[in-house]
């Protein structure tokens, strides 16, 4: 269960994203307002709906959201993106781009609650 205010922004899906709900997404190159699956160590938010190509994509950029995890995570760990757009814990203090902190843990492939906060950094 998760609670809290969520700050969402609307972007344009850069492809068929109907199966990508709860995945980490990021801006696509220089395309205005287009998003796609985040690269490893990247991401600007979590997809909240199921847009097809060129449809409006709702992206949570701050707040408590559910996110699909690529590896088992524990509450308190700091999150980043895997190349698949699944959230994973930050394994190294050298990672510069973080998404926030996991509020709940989850097994690989499941949903965890993530406190999206662009101001949370990796620990040394």
What's the SSE pattern?
EEEEEEEEE
Strand order of the largest sheet: 1-3-2-4-5
| Main sheet specs | 5 strands, mixed, barrel
Q: What is the helix fraction of residues, given as a range? A: under 10%
Report the count of strand segments. Answer: 9
- Proportion in β-strands: 35-45%
What is the oligomer described by this structure?
A: single chain
Q: Which structural class fits the helix and strand makeup?
A: mainly beta
Q: If helices are DSSP runs of H or I spanning 4 or more residues, what is the number of helices?
A: 0
Would you identify the regions where 5 or more consecutive residues have pLDDT less than 50? Answer: none
Structure report:
The structure is a single chain. By secondary structure, this protein is an all-beta fold. 0% of the residues lie in helices and 39% in strands. The chain has a 5-stranded mixed β-barrel. The protein is globular. It starts with 5 loop residues before the first strand and ends in an 8-residue tail after the last strand. The mean pLDDT is 89.
Provide a compact summary of the structure.
By secondary structure, the protein is mainly beta. The protein has no helices and nine strands.
What secondary-structure arrangement, pairings included, does this model have?
Elements: E1 6-13, E2 24-27, E3 34-37, E4 45-47, E5 56-68, E6 78-81, E7 87-89, E8 100-102, E9 111-116
Features:
124 residues; mainly beta; 0% helix; globular
